[in-house]
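Need tokens for this chain, all 120 residues.
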Amino acid sequence: MLRGKSRLNVEWLGYSPGLLLERRPLLAGRSPRSPGRNESSLASTLKTLLFFTALMITVPIGLYFTTKSYVFEGAFGMSNRDSYFYAAIVAVVAVHVVLALFVYVAWNEGSRQWREGKQD
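Here are the structure tokens for all 120 residues:
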């Protein structure tokens, strides 16, 4: 029998070594996952993706034209050339904020689904 670090540790899978010696299927004690949960998970993921796709298109473009016209040219009185430059910076920052929010939401959604799957 192997000892030390080279020994196979299967307890992290949720099985004790005694169960592996028996000739039973490994999933005998577990309930099969329902297909409805996978479909709702897929629908939730698709809704999240479509929501952030819409945000990625509308927020930077909207902020670009809004800040160019009303903030930089209107409130600050900048020239047309300068307002293009600063409005583009605002749009790039908006893209990064939307991407960061998407990563945060996707990470939390994935960990939530992992926790629910682990409780099965």
